[in-house]
């Protein structure tokens, strides 16, 4: 999508905000009447006040979702009709792509070019799962002649999701699209920092023909609305993307309630391993910068631990610093801005504290390390690279979730593998080498849900996304995700 700054500002100035909960096909205030203020990290200004939902609002959403599921107006709708409705929703999102992108830029400071790119990815995701609806078959087991054993997939029922602020709609649609495609009712609790785009999409879903109660958006806070969704006895599944700490809470909520299914995509501290025989050090350096500083480093699978073979360390770091320069934060509404703001003041303070910790641990900053654009009123941090990092340092162990890259040197394959696996996380790993034998051996031994080789991209919807260890379990994307929103039933018929 080609963006023009004047058009961006024109549409921005004409925005109206959906700031109520969306339950059973209607915008409604929270039952308590409470609201929370929504500030933009772009300039610190108040955007709007949003309904602050709690247990009673979640109860109403679950009741509506369960009622329409049992009625069957979506769950038992003919697959090709459900498919057409999801295609129509995708078309409506495309028509409103700039508006939706601007809502995300206002909410979390993402550059408008990246924000509209995320909405385009949501549209692709929705189209992909809509197209898959009538392409998946059930099975008949091989049995003796007088038996018909049908193995069918049925929707779970009521699905809840709690999603993060870093990709407000995209992380949600990785769950919404397969859940709706398989016939479930859905309740979304978006992050309190970024609820506006989801609230707008709920209206588009109704316009597309999604029945009332099938898609609900209930804004609020994690310890109240999020916990209520996780603890609800009539929610069949809860999908969560966010921190490992909160992910563990949802496992506990499941055990303390109805043993609902839980799928988690949590934190990461992904290794990006640069061997001396990398096919193109310039490309590896550029993609290391791009992968780390995109979205201000607020990405679960960001390649935040840079493992460099000692013989090319100095050369590689020189290239990396140069490729980091275009990522200096700028006005998020400018179409050519690469990096925008952090999501809020709290996250900014957290990242700056980690930078100070890194310096106190003995690591050396070779670029960045400071807050910039302070006069804007927003929250911006320069792309930051530490060298001389040891893998036992706090900045190498913990997820910073900001534009901070930790460079760690190594000698040989075994040390690289040991460092790569010496983490609580296992979401992503990258290997740069021309040696196919070495790559294949290391890829098999890395404890990670994804291993990318000589590339930083895995953006195709046909491949699964998810982690090992404390990066969680379950998979978004691909046909594998559809299985997480269905349950398997055996129907055994004995013929006379």
CATH superfamily of the largest domain: Aldehyde Dehydrogenase, Chain A, domain 1
Structural class: alpha/beta
Provide the β-strand percentage band. Answer: 15-25%
How many β-strand runs? 24
Low-confidence stretches: none
Radius of gyration from CA coordinates: 23 Å
The helix tally amounts to 16
* Mean pLDDT across residues: 97
**What is the makeup of the main sheet?**
7 strands, mixed
Domain count: the total is: 2
The CATH class of the largest domain is identified as Alpha Beta
Helix content: 25-40%
CATH architecture of the largest domain: 3-Layer(aba) Sandwich
Descriptive overview:
Helix content is 39%, strand content 20%. The chain has 16 helices and 24 strands. It has helices spanning 5-13, 55-71, 79-95, 97-108, 112-132, 170-181, 196-208, 222-231, 244-256, 281-293, 313-324, 345-360, 394-397, 412-421, 436-445, 478-483; strands at residues 21-23, 26-28, 35-39, 46-51, 139-140, 147-155, 158-162, 185-189, 215-217, 237-241, 261-265, 271-274, 305-309, 364-367, 371-372, 380-381, 384-387, 404-410, 425-426, 429-432, 451-453, 468-469, 472-473, 486-494. The strands form 7 sheets. A 7-stranded mixed sheet has the order 14-17-18-13-12-20-21, sandwiched between helices. The protein has a 6-stranded mixed sheet with strand order 9-8-7-10-11-23, with helices on both faces. The longest helix has 21 residues, at 112-132. The termini are far apart.
């Amino acid at each position: 999508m080609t963006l023009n700054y004047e058009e961006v500002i024109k549409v921005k100035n004409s925005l109206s905000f959906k700031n109520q909960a969306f339950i059973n096909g209607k915008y409604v205030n929270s039952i308590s009447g409470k609201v929370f203020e929504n500030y933009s990290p772009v300039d610190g200004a108040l955007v709007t006040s949003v309904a602050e939902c709690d247990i009673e609002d979640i109860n109403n959403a679950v009741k509506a979702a369960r009622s329409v599921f049992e009625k069957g107006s979506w769950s038992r709708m003919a697959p090709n009709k459900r498919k057409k409705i999801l295609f129509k929703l995708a078309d409506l999102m495309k028509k409103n792509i700039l508006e939706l992108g601007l809502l995300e830029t206002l909410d979390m400071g993402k550059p408008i070019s990246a924000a509209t790119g995320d909405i385009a990815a949501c549209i692709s995701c929705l189209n992909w799962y809509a197209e898959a609806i009538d392409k998946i078959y059930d099975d008949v087991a091989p049995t003796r002649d007088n038996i018909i054993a049908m193995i069918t997939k049925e929707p779970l029922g009521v699905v809840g999701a709690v999603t993060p602020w870093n990709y407000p709609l995209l992380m949600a649609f990785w769950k919404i699209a397969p859940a709706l495609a398989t016939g479930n009712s859905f309740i979304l609790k978006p992050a309190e920092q970024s609820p506006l785009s989801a609230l707008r999409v709920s209206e588009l879903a109704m316009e597309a023909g999604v029945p009332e109660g099938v898609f609900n958006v209930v804004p609020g806070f994690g310890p109240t609305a999020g916990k209520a969704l996780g603890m609800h006895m009539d929610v069949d599944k809860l999908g969560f993307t966010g921190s490992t700490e909160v992910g563990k809470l949802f496992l506990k909520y499941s055990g303390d309630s109805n043993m609902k299914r839980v799928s988690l995509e949590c934190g990461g501290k992904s290794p990006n391993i640069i061997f001396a025989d990398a096919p193109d050090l310039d490309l590896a350096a550029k993609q290391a910068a791009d992968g780390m500083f995109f979205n201000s480093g607020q990405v679960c699978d960001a390649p935040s631990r840079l493992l460099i073979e000692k013989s090319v360390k100095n050369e590689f770091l020189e290239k990396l610093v140069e490729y980091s320069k275009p990522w200096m934060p700028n006005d998020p509404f400018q179409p050519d801005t690469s990096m925008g703001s952090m999501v809020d003041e709290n996250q900014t303070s957290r990242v700056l504290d980690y930078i100070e910790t890194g310096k106190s641990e003995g690591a050396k900053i070779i670029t960045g390390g400071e807050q910039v654009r302070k006069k804007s009123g927003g929250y911006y941090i320069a792309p930051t690279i530490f060298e001389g990092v040891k893998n036992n340092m706090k900045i190498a162990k913990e997820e910073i979730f900001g534009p901070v890259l930790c460079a760690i040197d190594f000698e040989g394959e075994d040390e690289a593998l040991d460092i790569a696996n010496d983490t609580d996380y296992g979401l992503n790993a990258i290997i740069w080498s021309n040696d196919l034998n070495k790559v294949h051996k290391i890829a098999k031994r890395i404890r990670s849900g994804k291993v990318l080789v000589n590339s930083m991209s895995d953006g195709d919807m046909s491949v699964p996304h998810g982690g090992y260890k404390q990066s969680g379990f379950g998979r978004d994307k691909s046909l594998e995700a559809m299985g997480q929103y269905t349950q398997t039933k055996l129907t055994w018929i004995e013929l006379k």
